[in-house]
Structures are given as C-alpha cells and as structure tokens.
Design goal:
- This protein has twelve helices and no strands.
- The chain is mainly α.
- Helix 1 packs across helix 2 and helix 4 packs across helix 7.
C-alpha cells in the first residue's frame, strides 16, 4: 500500500517523497489512490485561496491559489488536456490526432482549451468563496477517479506510460478509487449540490468516453488528463450553478 500511495503522489504532483524508486506496477496500483491525491491537492489549493482572502480581494486570491495548484502538480493534467485538444482539434484522422498530441508545442486549440479550464477554476473559486474548502477537493477527487474508469473501459491507442500502467490490471485500482470517491462524497453528504455534482461528473465522463470510443477507439495519457479536467470542471460548474 505504501509504495502505491507514494507512487500516486509522485506521479500526480511535484511533492518530493523519499524512498525507493517508483516502478510501473507501483503506479498501476497507485491509480486506486488518485482520488485521495486529487482531494489533497484540492484541499491545499482551496486552503491557499481562503488564506488569501485575508489579504486580497477574492479574484486575486483565486489567481494566487490557481497558480499554487499548478505549481503543486506541475500542470500535469492541464498539459495533457492541452495536447489532447490540439490533437482532436487539428487532426482529421486517428493517426494525425495521435501525431499532433506527441508534439510538445502548444497550438491554438490547446491554448484556447487551457484558457477555458483555468478560467472555470478561477471563476468557481471566486463564486464558491469559503465553500471551496470542501468543493474543490471533491471536484478534484471526481476528476482523478475518472482516470480509473477510462483506463478500465477503453484500451490504449498509443505506446506510453498509460498503456504500461493499464497493462498491469484495469479494475482492481478502479475499485480502490471508487471506494475513496464514495468516502469523499460521504464526508460531504450534508453539503449542498452534491447530487447535481455527481450527475454532472458522470454525464461528462460518459460523454467523453463515448466520444473517445467513436473518434479514436481508446485512450492515452493526454486523453486521460483531458477527461480528468473535463470531469473536474463539470463538478465545479454544477456546484456553483443557480
């Protein structure tokens, strides 16, 4: 358990964790811990936001918190989402989509998608105010959970770490991730909008999975990152909806 949890923290964040080197099989088992790591990242980011409210107006505190969150994770999922949107927006064939996603340079589609993702997170923090302390961890737990679902449902479409991790077993980590997600929802059971958030997350995830199945026939690391960001954004939008 310790090795897989350490692997999950190392994989999803830039937080240095001492110990032996992480192996691919550690990351595979670590997928089950992804919702916990997401919730911790969300809690730290929301904490910076609420502390920032003591010093700055909400928009500026939210900008500082979003920046802190990006530093904490290295923009890992945002980078994947950017590459995915560049590929899906600029490629007409499956092969061309995958070729564009390998290019580390950011294109117009990726830049536009990144702006929208960060704008939604920033706006949601401002709207949530101190409710961000539970809402952002919950949204990030849903987002990281979606990775375990997509890895279980869809085959990999390209060589890479996602394929190696998926080859170590699909559904075991999903069960662990689901248990942690249910725990997170249970802890927030008295919070408003929980049902709407769950419906939004499942809806966004289902549509994304169907789209990937039809368009490319499977998933990759960049596409998993994009799905994570879509689900997280859907939960935030649901929680701040009137």
């Amino acid at each position: 358990m310790t090795a897989s949890l350490v692997a999950a923290i190392r994989f999803l964040t830039r937080v240095p964790v001492p110990g032996r080197a992480t192996r691919v099989e550690d990351i595979a088992r670590g997928v089950g811990w992804f919702p916990l790591v997401g919730a911790l990242v969300g809690a730290a980011t929301a904490g910076v936001f609420v502390l920032g409210l003591r010093v700055w107006p909400a928009p500026l505190a939210a900008a500082v918190a979003v920046g802190f969150g990006l530093m904490l994770t290295g923009g890992f999922h945002e980078d994947g989402a950017t590459d995915a949107m560049d590929g899906l927006g600029g490629g007409w064939t499956r092969e061309r989509v995958l070729e564009i996603m390998k290019d580390s340079r950011i294109g117009a589609y990726g830049a536009m998608a990144l702006w929208v993702l960060l704008a939604v997170r920033w706006s949601a923090l401002v709207a949530l105010d101190r409710r961000a302390l539970w809402a952002l961890p919950l949204a990030m737990a849903w987002g990281r959970w979606s990775i375990s679902v997509l890895m279980g449902l869809l085959p990999p479409v390209a060589p890479g770490l996602a394929k190696e991790v998926g080859g170590e077993g699909r559904w075991g980590p999903f069960l662990g991730a689901t248990a942690l997600l249910l725990l997170a929802n249970g802890l927030c059971r008295n919070c408003p909008g929980l049902g709407k958030a769950a419906l939004a997350a499942l809806g966004a995830l289902g549509l994304w999975a169907l789209y990937l199945k039809r368009r490319l026939g499977g998933q990759s690391g960049d596409l998993l990152g994009a799905g994570n960001q879509l689900v997280e954004g859907a939960v935030l939008l649901a929680l701040v909806a009137r």
